[in-house]
C-alpha cells in the first residue's frame, strides 16, 4: 500500500468508512502525499494531457473569446484575469499572448490564479515569469473586480459523492477496508433530501453523483460575474445532469483501479453541467447553453488559425499540428466529450461561440 493508503486505512479502522469525496480530496490534495500536491502530472511522461498542452490554439482562442467579452462590456478597468486550476500555466500564457493584440487589455488586467498545489504553483510561476500573477487558495480570495475567468479541466478534479438508489432512498458509496485493503462499500439507506428531485427519474440501483464543491465554487464565480461584470468560461468533460458512475483513475495515460494506489493516480469524475448552470443562475448570472468543445472552437475560428500556423510547418511538426487540431475538435476525440458553458452578466452579450441558454 502507498503511504497515503496506510494513513487512510488507519483512519477507516478507527473511525469507520469515509465518503468517496473525503477519499478523493485526500488522494488529490493531501499536503504530503496528494497527487496534485506533490507532482506535475501533465504531458507525455505524466498521466494525462489537456487541451492547452495539446496546442497553443486552445489558449489563444479562449483568450480572444474573453477579450471580446471585455470589449463588449466597455473595457472595464481594472479587472481580474483569473484561472482556477491552472496546471502548468500554459493556458494563461497562451491567453495573454493572444490578448496582447487587444489595445489596452493587458494594461487593465491583473492575473489571478486559484491553485491548491504548491508544486504546480512553482510551475505556473515559471510559465508566467514577468507577469506577476497573484495566487489564491480559493475563489473567495479573488479581488472584488470585474472577473474574466477560465476553468479548463478543473471541475472534474473536485471531490464527488456517489449515491445508489434503494427504494425511494439512497445509499452512499463509501470507502471501507476489506481484508486490510481499501475497497468500495455502501452506507445505510437514507432519504437524502438533496436528491429528492432525482427519485422520479431514476430506477432501483441507479447511481447519481453530486459535487458539493463544484456548486459552491460556481456559485461564488456566478455571484461575482453577475455583480461586477465579466465572464466565466468552463471547459470540461461531462454532460447535462449526472447519471451513472463516472469516477475514474488515470495513471500513465491508462485507466487504473482508483483504490489500488491512493495518491499515485489522477482521480476524476464527469462534470454535471446542469449543476454548474443552476449554481451560476442562482447567484443572478446569465448562463449560456452547454456547447461541445469542437463546435465552440470551430465557431471561434480554429480552422483559420490552424491554417496560418500550418504555413510555417513541414514534416513531423506539421503532422503533430494537424493531429492536435483534430484532437481538440473531432467528435471522436475531445470535440464532443468536452463541453463548454459560460456565466455572464444579465443584459450583456454571451461570450462568442456560445448561445444564450434556450
Ligand atoms: N487547467 C489546466 C490543469 C487541469 S488539472 C490544464 O488544462 O492543463 C487540475 C488543476 O486544478 C491542477 O492545477 C490542480 O492542482 C488544480 N486543483 C485541483 N483541485 C483544486 C482545488 N480544490 N482548488 C484549487 N486548485 C485545484
Provide a descriptive summary of the structure in words.
By secondary structure, the protein is an alpha/beta fold. It has two domains: 3-33 and 161-209, no CATH class; 51-157 and 211-344, Rossmann fold (3-Layer(aba) Sandwich), CATH 3.40.50.12710. The protein is built from 14 helices and 17 strands. The strands form three sheets. Strands 2, 3, 4, 5, 10, 14, 15, 16 and 17 form a nine-stranded mixed β-sheet that branches. Helix 8 (118-127) links the parallel strand 3 (109-114) and strand 4 (134-136). Helix 9 packs across helix 10 (273-282). It is globular. The N and C termini lie far apart (50 Å). The mean pLDDT is 96. Bound molecules: S-adenosyl-L-homocysteine.
Class inferred from helices and paired strands: alpha/beta
Distance between the termini: 50 Å
CATH topology of the largest domain: Rossmann fold
Seen as an oligomer or otherwise, the chain set is single chain
Bound molecules: S-adenosyl-L-homocysteine
**CATH top level class name of the largest domain:** Alpha Beta
Tell me the radius of gyration: 21 Å
How many helix segments?
A: 14
Percent range for helical residues? 25-40%
Beta-strand proportion: 15-25%
Sketch the major β-sheet: 9 strands, mixed
Report the mean per-residue pLDDT as an integer.
96
Shape: globular
- Ranges where pLDDT stays below 50 over 5 or more residues in a row are none
Q: Examine the secondary-structure arrangement and name the CATH architecture of the largest domain.
A: 3-Layer(aba) Sandwich
Number of domains: 2
Amino acid at each position: 500500500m502507498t503511504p497515503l493508503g496506510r494513513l487512510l486505512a488507519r483512519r477507516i479502522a478507527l473511525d469507520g468508512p469515509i465518503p468517496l469525496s473525503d477519499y478523493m480530496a485526500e488522494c488529490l490534495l493531501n499536503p504530503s502525499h496528494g497527487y496534485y500536491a506533490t507532482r506535475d502530472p501533465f504531458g507525455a511522461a505524466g498521466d494525462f494531457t489537456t487541451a492547452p498542452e495539446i496546442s497553443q490554439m486552445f489558449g489563444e482562442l479562449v483568450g480572444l473569446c474573453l477579450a471580446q467579452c471585455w470589449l463588449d462590456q466597455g473595457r472595464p478597468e481594472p479587472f481580474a484575469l483569473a484561472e482556477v486550476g491552472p496546471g502548468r500555466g500554459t493556458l494563461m500564457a497562451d491567453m495573454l499572448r493572444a490578448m496582447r493584440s487587444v489595445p489596452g487589455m493587458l494594461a487593465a488586467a491583473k492575473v489571478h490564479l486559484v491553485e491548491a498545489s504548491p508544486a504546480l504553483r512553482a510551475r505556473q510561476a515559471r510559465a508566467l515569469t514577468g507577469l506577476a500573477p497573484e495566487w489564491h487558495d480559493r475563489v473567495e480570495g479573488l479581488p472584488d473586480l470585474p472577473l474574466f475567468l477560465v476553468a479548463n479541466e478543473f471541475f472534474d478534479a473536485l471531490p464527488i459523492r456517489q449515491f445508489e438508489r434503494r427504494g425511494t432512498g439512497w445509499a452512499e458509496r463509501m470507502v471501507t477496508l476489506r481484508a486490510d485493503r481499501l475497497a468500495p462499500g455502501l452506507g445505510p439507506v437514507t432519504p437524502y433530501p438533496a436528491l429528492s428531485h432525482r427519485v422520479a427519474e431514476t430506477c432501483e440501483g441507479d447511481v447519481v453523483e453530486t459535487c458539493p464543491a463544484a456548486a459552491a465554487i460556481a456559485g461564488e464565480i456566478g455571484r461575482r460575474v453577475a455583480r461586477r461584470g465579466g465572464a466565466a468560461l468552463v471547459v470540461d468533460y461531462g454532460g447535462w445532469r449526472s447519471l451513472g458512475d463516472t469516477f475514474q483513475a488515470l495513471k500513465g495515460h491508462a485507466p487504473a483501479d482508483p483504490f489500488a494506489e491512493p495518491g499515485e493516480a489522477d482521480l476524476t469524475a464527469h462534470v454535471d453541467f446542469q449543476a454548474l448552470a443552476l449554481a451560476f443562475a442562482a447567484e443572478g448570472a446569465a448562463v449560456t447553453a452547454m456547447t461541445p468543445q469542437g463546435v465552440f472552437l470551430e465557431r471561434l475560428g480554429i480552422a483559420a488559425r490552424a491554417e496560418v500556423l500550418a504555413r510555417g510547418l513541414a514534416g513531423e511538426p506539421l503532422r503533430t499540428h494537424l493531429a492536435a487540431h483534430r484532437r481538440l475538435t473531432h467528435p471522436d476525440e475531445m470535440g464532443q466529450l468536452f463541453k463548454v458553458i459560460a456565466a455572464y452578466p444579465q443584459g450583456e452579450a454571451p461570450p462568442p461561440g456560445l448561445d444564450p441558454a434556450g
